[in-house]
């Protein structure tokens, strides 16, 4: 009797658990709404995971049969995954730098035929051409530009700085007025971010990274000037600048702790997000300042877009590109206008796009993505902190960065 | 036990370890003596990229790998001997720095910088972890029976918390005006920037590791305390031994094998310190050996990584651990033959 | 922090983070009545867990395995409490608060929207299920082959056995990042590599949970066999020798004599395997694709180039969600951990 009772009660318990579980896990079915066709070929995509990609892959998924993988480690996985035969993914999301390894390894296919077939709505500047062949379709651009607190600038009667000299004197006045904790924010986190700041400033001074035969060429006057300007700027920043990435700077802005920063355009929207920000409507955007009068702005232009794998059948590529185009259409942009500065037809450029487009028209150049630049970026990211913390002088830091680059370039086969 | 039976018992385990640990290890060893490079060619390439209004096209001389007929990159592998080790340790620079007696110059070489931190980190946390763990174990052993469960539960928490989450919490709590920093600032009435200089970060890292590892020491030692022969304790009390004497002559000797066990586990784990570097974003100030390996191994945006140097660094880390393990190996050898 | 609006979740004023005035002003929060009633119900729930649950568990545990009974009991209790505190009570309180007036006004800012976003909108339950699969797989396989190997090693005096132990010890000391980076290209190209052996059915290992389980089991083997070996060494070998005299072979002796007494050591070792599998980040983040992603690496999805403050608050909510089951687990198993260790699993 007791045995039976126990089995029974266990069964009842199981049932209750199962019914509870199912009531939690019931979900709305997938909707095939906004897609103009129904896709029957199983496809997979591998992209980064930020908001713009969520919107785009979401729109692609409406066509059905797409497994979208939004992965933080996509750049670790993409080269190998696309080199497998058959490729593990059909659609890839890349930026100008992360396209380099795929292009070098020849694992993405030219898209001219597919663009002619399905890409009539694409604007000419969306087509990334390498030696005349379309290799990728860009969807958005990004650049760092000046964001500043309009209210503070008006109160103190400051003009919008167009050079770093002006920016520093503005920072001094803000510091004296003491309205914010720190006049300046900066994405100076050691590693990729810090190196990006150097690249921006160095290109602003008109510097060249490489000499003949992939030799490094940063140990020069421009390099020293760049480092010294960077150090000068840190005087006005939170002393923890070596751990501050763009999310951190954005948060400082939102909480009203800083008055200016050279920050990514894609962060502009967050300043006016009432759910997060305490400075709604107070932040304005302008061109990234130039190092000195007559230079180009200290910023580089980036793009994000899609590529199609080479090691898949033509039928799959056809379906993949068609689905991708559904993700990059007018409807998607209109539904997610604020997620990025879209290149896609139908985007209405708002306040957030102003700073970035001014930066571009003042002459900022595209980030010089290449294999050697990848190595240089890593060497810079690991080497600059020693100068900022005062362990090395500028010349020594630059020489050490060059020698770190040389070691890596020799290993990679770029130098002998 | 016959060999066949023994093989059946340990077979599955050994096979898995061979497949997933030994094979990668052998390949790491091999890679530390070889370099694989693509064959490059220099070509003029025209690249068109988007700007805001139109397109920017540039023609430049690019170095890119050659592809073979199947569309794969042509690669060459050559034996380079100790070259990867040399570019990691940089012996010439090290010797000049040593002969000039300049400590900070040695610290400019990543490998020595990482080794310096790894060793200090390992040997500073070791006594702290054992001491704190032992103290908690004694305390728990002496609290009221009704409270024991709760105390054990709370003491175990830091040990079970997911390391990634532990590291993230530090970011949330301390970086910038995180809630704990803000509290400290309010309490001490001064401005505090814990992440602005190397030594505060290093201190926080030490503290975090002790917080995270002491519970393991605690639970093992606590278990050990339960096995102490009560008779000998009681007879010691009758003989008039005070607390301290009992601790010194009965408890500690009894727990000695456990303390050695904890010490060696801790040495192995602390020597691999990595989570802390990432969690505290300390690479601008201090780095560890495993972080160095990881950094060399992580590809940059354009997909290049330094497999040769990373393998060399991994092998050197292993040699270091093997040296640290020597005492345990000797003891196990003794046990094995006595048993 | 995960129960406040993003605007103040990371505020530099600790009081604001605790009280959440902004969240409260939005009408999201706990009223005095909520706190009193909630407190009373919470008290009785805790009392039930402490007084009533242990008795029930002791009476109804399947196969006399108390820990199994505890697992079922906690699971059941956890789900019931989850529904009580997250569905029934909040809905009830909304109407009660309206009815009672001033006492029902929110006093302490609190919002569960981030948990809702994490679990429902971001489908974190998928990661939860994946975590369950990987963790259960790792614990089960790791223990089955680990106990066999541990027993074999404990009963063998050969130099080979000693050699295996030493090599395993060195393996334990290896930095994981070195191993894992080596797997990635092989796993991705495994189909091409294995094709000559398996033909067209050769699998792509990348993204497969069972491949990750195999990796985690292997990484964890050294620790497992060391712990279990010491444990088996403390079980007198006269026991199984007596069984062998009665005509059993080694496997029968293991099954009849050793298996019934080995559970304390196995459970303790199993807990360490569980922690390793559940907490792993490096292996799972690199070798699993999005469909099979476990919880810990899924958190990193909240941190990228474009992380917003809302993302960060949701990450905190996800972190809390990951930690909660761990707390339950230790609550249930803390006695077993200690008793397993006492019985000799730690004698080096």
Protein model, in words:
The complex is a heterotrimer of chains A (416), B (339) and C (348). Chain A is 45% helix and 15% strand. Chain A has two domains: 149 residues, D-Maltodextrin-Binding Protein, domain 2 (3-Layer(aba) Sandwich); 207 residues, D-Maltodextrin-Binding Protein, domain 2 (3-Layer(aba) Sandwich), CATH 3.40.190. The longest helix of chain A is centred in the first third of the chain and has 24 residues. Chain A has 16 helices and eleven strands. Chain A is an alpha/beta fold. Chain B has 339 residues and is mainly alpha-helical. Chain B has a domain of 228 residues: MetI-like fold, CATH 1.10.3720. Chain B has 14 helices and four strands. In chain B, helix 5 packs antiparallel against helix 6, helix 5 crosses helix 9 and helix 11 packs antiparallel against helix 14. Chain C is mainly alpha-helical and 348 residues long. Chain C has two domains: 106 residues, no CATH class; 227 residues, MetI-like (MetI-like fold), CATH 1.10.3720. In chain C, 77% of the residues lie in helices and 2% in strands. A two-stranded antiparallel ribbon of chain C has the order 1-2. In chain C, helix 7 crosses helix 14 and helix 8 crosses helix 11. Chain C is globular, with a radius of gyration of 25 Å. Chain C starts with 5 loop residues before the first helix and ends with a helix. Chains B and C meet through helix 1, helix 6, helix 7, helix 8 and helix 9 of B and helix 7, helix 8, helix 9, helix 11 and helix 14 of C.
Give a concise summary:
The complex is a heterotrimer of chains A (416), B (339) and C (348). Helices cover 69% and strands 9% of the residues of chain B.
Topology record:
The complex is a heterotrimer of chains A (416), B (339) and C (348).
Chain A: H1 2-25, E1 43-47, H2 51-61, E2 66-70, H3 74-83, E3 91-95, H4 99-105, H5 112-118, E4 127-130, E5 133-149, H6 150-156, H7 164-177, E6 182-185, H8 192-204, H9 221-234, H10 246-254, E7 258-264, H11 268-271, E8 283-286, E9 300-308, H12 314-327, H13 330-335, E10 341-342, H14 351-361, E11 365-366, H15 371-388, H16 394-412
Helix pairs in contact in A: 2-12, 8-9, 8-15, 15-16
Chain B: H1 3-31, E1 34-38, E2 40-50, E3 55-65, E4 75-79, H2 83-89, H3 91-100, H4 103-106, H5 110-142, H6 145-160, H7 163-174, H8 179-188, H9 198-226, H10 230-238, H11 243-271, H12 275-279, H13 289-297, H14 307-338
Antiparallel strand pairs in B: 1-4, 2-3
Helix pairs in contact in B: 1-14, 2-14, 5-6, 5-9, 5-11, 6-9, 9-11, 11-14, 13-14
Chain C: H1 6-9, H2 14-19, H3 21-25, E1 29-31, H4 32-60, H5 66-100, E2 106-109, H6 113-121, H7 124-154, H8 159-172, H9 176-188, H10 190-198, H11 209-233, H12 237-245, H13 250-261, H14 263-279, H15 282-287, H16 295-300, H17 309-345
Antiparallel strand pairs in C: 1-2
């Amino acid at each position: 009797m007791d045995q039976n009772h126990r089995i029974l009660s266990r069964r009842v318990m199981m049932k209750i658990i199962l019914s509870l579980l199912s009531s939690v896990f019931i979900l709305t079915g997938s909707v095939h709404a906004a897609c103009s066709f129904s896709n029957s070929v199983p496809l997979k995509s591998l992209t980064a995971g930020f908001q713009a990609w969520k919107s785009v892959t979401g729109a692609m998924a409406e066509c059905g049969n797409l497994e979208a993988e939004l992965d933080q480690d996509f750049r670790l996985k993409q080269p190998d995954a696309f080199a497998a035969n058959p490729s593990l993914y059909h659609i890839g999301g890349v930026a100008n730098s992360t396209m380099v390894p795929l292009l070098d390894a020849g694992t993405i296919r030219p898209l001219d035929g597919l663009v002619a077939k399905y890409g009539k709505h694409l604007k000419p500047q969306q087509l990334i051409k390498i030696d005349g062949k379309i290799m990728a379709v860009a969807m958005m651009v990004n650049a760092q530009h000046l964001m500043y607190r309009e209210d503070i600038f008006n109160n103190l009667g400051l003009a919008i700085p167009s050079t770093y000299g002006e920016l520093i004197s503005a920072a001094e006045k803000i510091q004296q007025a003491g309205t914010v904790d720190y006049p300046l924010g900066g994405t100076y986190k050691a590693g990729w971010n810090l190196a990006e700041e150097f690249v921006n400033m160095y290109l602003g001074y008109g510097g060249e990274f490489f000499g003949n035969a992939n030799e490094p060429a940063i140990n020069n006057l421009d390099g020293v000037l760049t480092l010294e300007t960077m150090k000068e700027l840190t005087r006005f920043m939170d002393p923890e600048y070596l751990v501050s990435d763009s999310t951190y700077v954005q948060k400082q802005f939102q909480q009203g702790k800083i008055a200016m920063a050279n920050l990514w355009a894609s962060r502009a929207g967050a300043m006016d997000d009432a759910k997060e920000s305490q400075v709604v409507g107070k932040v304005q955007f302008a061109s990234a300042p130039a190092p000195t009068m007559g230079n180009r702005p200290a910023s580089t232009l980036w793009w994000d877009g899609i590529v199609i794998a080479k090691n898949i059948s033509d039928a799959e590529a056809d379906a993949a590109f068609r689905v991708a185009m559904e993700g990059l259409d007018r409807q998607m942009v209109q539904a997610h206008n604020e997620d990025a500065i879209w290149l896609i037809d139908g985007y209405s450029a708002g306040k957030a796009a102003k700073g970035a487009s001014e930066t571009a028209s003042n002459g900022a150049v595209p980030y010089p993505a290449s294999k050697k630049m990848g190595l240089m970026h890593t060497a810079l990211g690991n080497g600059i902190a020693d100068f900022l913390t005062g362990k090395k002088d500028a010349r020594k830091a630059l020489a050490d960065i060059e020698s770190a680059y040389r070691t890596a370039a020799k290993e990679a086969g770029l130098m002998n | 036990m016959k060999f066949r039976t023994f093989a059946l018992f340990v077979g599955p385990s050994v096979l898995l370890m061979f497949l997933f640990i030994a094979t990668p290890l052998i390949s790491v060893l091999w890679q530390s003596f070889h370099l694989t490079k693509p064959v490059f060619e220099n070509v003029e390439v025209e690249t068109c990229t988007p700007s805001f209004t139109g397109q920017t096209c540039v023609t430049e001389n690019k170095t890119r790998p050659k592809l073979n007929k199947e569309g794969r990159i042509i690669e060459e592998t050559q034996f380079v001997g100790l070259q990867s080790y040399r570019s990691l340790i940089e012996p010439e620079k090290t010797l000049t720095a040593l002969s000039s007696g300049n400590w900070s110059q040695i610290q400019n070489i990543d490998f020595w910088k990482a080794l310096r931190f790894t060793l200090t980190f390992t040997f500073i946390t070791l006594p702290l972890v054992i001491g704190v763990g032992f103290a908690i174990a004694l305390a728990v052993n002496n609290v009221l029976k009704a409270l024991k469960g709760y105390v054990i539960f709370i003491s175990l928490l830091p040990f079970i918390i997911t390391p990634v989450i532990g590291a993230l919490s530090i970011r949330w709590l301390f970086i910038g005006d995180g809630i704990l920093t803000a509290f400290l600032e309010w309490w001490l009435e001064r401005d505090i920037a814990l992440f602005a200089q190397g030594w505060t970060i290093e201190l926080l890292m030490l503290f975090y590791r002790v917080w995270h590892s002491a519970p393991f020491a605690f639970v093992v030692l606590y278990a050990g305390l339960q096995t102490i022969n009560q008779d000998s304790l009681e007879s010691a009390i009758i003989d008039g031994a005070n607390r301290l004497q009992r601790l010194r002559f009965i408890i500690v000797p009894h727990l000695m094998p456990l303390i050695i066990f904890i010490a060696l586990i801790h040495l192995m784990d602390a020597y691999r310190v990595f989570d802390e570097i990432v969690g505290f974003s300390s690479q601008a100030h201090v780095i560890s050996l495993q972080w160095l390996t990881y950094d060399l191994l992580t590809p940059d945006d354009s997909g290049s990584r330094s497999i040769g140097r990373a393998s060399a660094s991994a092998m050197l880390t292993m040699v270091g651990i093997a040296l640290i393990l020597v005492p345990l190996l000797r003891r196990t050898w003794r046990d094995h033959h006595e048993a | 922090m995960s129960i406040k609006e993003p605007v103040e979740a990371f505020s530099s004023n600790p009081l604001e983070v605790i009280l959440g005035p902004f969240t409260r002003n939005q009408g999201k929060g706990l009223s005095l009545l909520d706190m009193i009633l909630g407190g009373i119900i919470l008290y009785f729930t805790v009392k039930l867990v402490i007084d009533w649950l242990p008795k029930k568990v002791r009476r109804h545990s399947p196969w006399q395995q108390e820990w199994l009974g505890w697992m079922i009991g906690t699971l059941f209790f956890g789900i019931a409490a989850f529904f009580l505190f997250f569905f029934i009570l909040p809905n009830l309180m909304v109407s009660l608060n309206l009815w009672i007036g001033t006492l029902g006004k929110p006093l302490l800012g609190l919002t569960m929207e981030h948990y809702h976003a994490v679990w429902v909108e971001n489908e974190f339950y998928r990661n939860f299920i994946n975590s369950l699969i990987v963790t259960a797989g790792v614990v089960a396989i790791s223990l089955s082959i680990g106990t066999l190997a541990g027993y074999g090693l404990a009963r063998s005096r050969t130099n080979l056995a000693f050699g295996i132990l030493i090599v395993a010890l060195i393996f334990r000391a290896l930095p994981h990042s070195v191993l894992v980076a080596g797997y990635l290209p092989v796993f991705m190209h495994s189909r091409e590599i294995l094709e000559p052996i398996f033909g067209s059915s050769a699998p792509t290992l990348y993204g497969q949970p069972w491949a990750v389980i195999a990796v985690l089991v292997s990484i964890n083997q050294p620790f497992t066999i060391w712990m279990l070996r010491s444990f088996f060494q403390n079980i007198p070998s006269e026991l199984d020798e007596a069984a062998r005299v009665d005509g059993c072979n080694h496997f029968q002796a293991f099954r009849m004599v050793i298996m019934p007494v080995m559970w304390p050591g196995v459970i303790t070792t199993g807990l360490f395997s569980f922690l390793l599998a559940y907490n792993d980040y490096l292996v799972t983040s690199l070798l699993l694709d999005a469909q099979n992603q476990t919880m810990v690496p899924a958190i990193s999805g909240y941190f990228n180039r474009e992380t917003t403050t809302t993302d960060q608050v949701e990450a905190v909510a996800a972190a809390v969600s990951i930690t909660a089951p761990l707390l339950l687990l230790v609550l249930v198993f803390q006695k077993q951990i200690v008793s397993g260790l006492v019985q000799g699993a730690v004698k080096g």
